[in-house]
Amino acid sequence: MSTPLTPGMLLRDRYRIREAIAEGGMGRTYLAEDLERFCEPCVIKEFLAGRTGPKERELFAREAAVLYQIDHPQIPRFRGHFEEGGRLFLVQEYIDGVTLRELLQERQTRDQVFPESEVVELLLQILPVLGYLHRQNILHRDVSPENLMVRSRDRLPMLIDFGASKEVLALATENLAPEGHGITATVVGKFGYAPPEQLQTGQAFPNSDLYALAVTAVELLTGQNPAALYNARELRWEWHDAAAVSPVLANILDRMLARQPGQRYRSAEEVLTEFVAWKSVRQQPKTVVATVAKTVAAPPYPLCPPPPNPPGTGGPGNGSRCRWCLWPPGAGIGCLRAPRPHTAAPAPRRPP
Questions:
Q1: What CA–CA distance (Å, rounded) separates 17 from 22?
Q2: What percent of the chain has pLDDT over 90?
Q3: In terms of domains, do 27 and 113 share one?
Q4: What does the alpha-carbon distance between residue 108 and residue 112 come to, in Å, rounded to a whole number?
Q5: 142 is catalytic
Q6: Is the pTM of this model over 0.90?
Q7: Shared domain check, 143 and 44
Q8: Same domain, yes or no, for 116 and 236?
Q9: Residue 59's pLDDT band (boundaries 50, 70, 90)?
Q10: CA-CA distance, 76 to 54, in Å (whole number)?
């Protein structure tokens, strides 16, 4: 393994290292300054490679180019990649802010957690970001409180430390395996946050990111480590008693946390649609809501039936491999319309 970079070191005669930020099994992250951009702060990610031959470098560059195409105001921009001394690096925009992990820890010192209103607002701001990525056929694969940062200048949540960037180097190794040899999928994600299919097989889908986002929301609501809220014997989440939330939000998060991918929401847009329907009901005049309550035996939320289990998967807890069978495309969210109250016609008056 290569030795860590030290403060003051210069890469490509352009990037001066300020300090190490983090280190993991797949790489190191540094805060640096870009001398060609008036010493503007930037983030340098170094990948710890076992080999960096011509083919690895070519694939690394191709995958990095995909990351470079990401353009969203709530995702740090990828500015480039380079190799120096046989080591591979990515350059990323620096974000001044604080992570949700740090914010949660600060609140816990005062015996506080995130209220439902703040968590709902966070979900409404991050779900469109995930939707954008998924439409580009890109998965984050590492959503967690550490990788959601509140930007200082506008308080917007930012999605940082892309799991895809960690996968770049792994893809180089996997795709260049000798012919005839099996390839094990790369596991990217945190234990406790990543869903079963991602941790067990390396497979990930758009709603794998939704699962991790729901785990993050539950941790913010409860202040507890996800491992303490998951019943490993029965393979289900048990968090309701640890948080004061409305039944609607609990139902939404539970569906995002379904063990089988086919039982979850299909996309970030579906979750947003559910939230919009919920908010519209909450904003109705009280008289209309009262009329609905008196005249309609409303089913428990959500109004639409749960999607069937994927063929061959059984119910929750079945360990068989799940196909990508989801809710039919036409399925939507039902809405109750307040019926017009019936008024009996007045009886005819007798002539005098």
A1: 13
A2: 56
A3: no
A4: 5
A5: yes
A6: no
A7: no
A8: yes
A9: low
A10: 28
